[in-house]
Design a protein that fits this description.
The protein has 328 residues and is α+β, with helices and mostly antiparallel strands. It has a single domain, classed as Beta-lactamase (3-Layer(aba) Sandwich). It is built from nine helices and twelve strands.
Length: 328
């Protein structure tokens, strides 16, 4: 462990890392350190309790929101999209199921198709970012579009699929996505410092996200407020609390939780995908990751040792070099 901590410190200095790194065993912080600035222009340093965006790490929380609707009997893993609303049937096959959406095997149209897009710092859509405040605001992006492929044909990571899951949460629950996730997922997990904050009104001690020049913020590069595929803010302590709550069944029942943590898609004999969560085998490790303009994030959890390792960065892809140290 000492060697790992030395490598973290050395790597952080070498790459001028900006963010927070934490290692917990159960609820005890073995290591927690902050680097760089949450506000570069005003020289306000990151702190170990600073809130950071987690980009696509949000997807697991969307998935768990769907899990709450399953617990409530309003959906099932096998519910077909065509059963919910026939207006959806052009951009996704009506036979695609909720499980297909959760595991990126639905073939739904993807407004942010990472099989085609590489420059995250310069990606924009037809709707101005400031008009995208909740998943249902994205519906015009899906209209008159065609699905990518038939359900179960293959795995294709889909931002559009998770925005659509957020739309379904709003449609079925009658609540704003962010309010539903707050009350049904974040609160049961004890994540009191987490939420979906407006980019133009971030709360105190929240890190600005910076593009690769480390001077320009991402306020004009992301939706006004996070939704189904990304944009939540959280802290290292809240993420640790989340993993503990998930595996002690404080969020969902054992039956539904275990279904989420199954390996539904095998990438190879070393890794796979559950419902919103990545998996590595031997020893078993779960992870959620996210990267976007001004955001780099990874959190891993080893259930057998109850160890949580999290890297938050407020620079595009800034977490990668330190997150890679666990693989050495």
């Amino acid at each position: 462990m000492k060697t790992l901590l030395q490598k973290i410190e050395e790597t952080a200095a070498k790459i001028q890392f900006s963010g927070v790194v934490s290692i917990f065993r159960e609820s005890e912080a073995i290591y927690s350190a902050a680097f760089g600035y949450r506000d570069v222009q005003n020289k306000l340093p990151n702190q170990t309790d600073t809130r950071f965006g987690i980009a696509s790490g949000t997807k697991f929380f969307t998935a768990l929101g769907i899990g709450q609707l399953i617990e409530q009997g309003k959906l099932s893993f096998d519910t077909a999209v065509g059963e919910l609303d026939d207006r959806f049937n052009h951009f996704i096959d009506p036979k695609a199921t909720i499980l297909n959406l959760l595991t990126h095997t639905s073939g739904i149209f993807d407004y942010y198709d990472e099989e085609l897009i590489r420059d995250f710092d310069n990606f924009f859509v037809e709707i101005p970012w400031y008009q995208l405040e909740t998943p249902s605001d994205y519906m015009p992006l899906f209209e008159n579009q065609q699905m990518k492929f038939a359900p179960n044909e293959r795995y294709a990571y889909s931002n559009g699929g998770y925005v659509f899951l957020g739309i379904l949460i709003e449609k079925i629950s009658g609540m704003l996505y962010r309010d539903f996730i707050q009350t049904q997922v974040l609160n049961p997990a004890g994540m009191s410092d987490s939420g979906f904050f407006a980019m133009n009104n971030l709360p105190q001690n929240t890190a600005n996200g910076y593009l690769l020049d480390r001077q320009t913020t991402n306020v004009y590069n992301l939706p006004l407020r996070g939704g189904g595929d990304g944009g939540m803010f959280t802290t290292t302590a809240d993420i640790r609390s989340f993993w503990e709550a998930l595996f002690s069944y404080k969020i969902l029942s054992p039956q539904v939780t275990d279904r989420f943590l199954e390996t539904h898609v095998h990438f190879n004999d070393q890794s796979g995908y559950g419902c919103g969560v990545y998996q590595k085998f031997n020893p078993l490790r779960y992870s959620i990751v996210g990267g976007d303009a001004g955001v780099g994030f990874q959190s891993c959890y080893w259930p057998d040792k109850e160890i949580t390792f999290s890297v938050f960065s407020n620079v595009t892809d800034g977490e990668e070099a330190i997150a890679d140290l666990w693989r050495e």
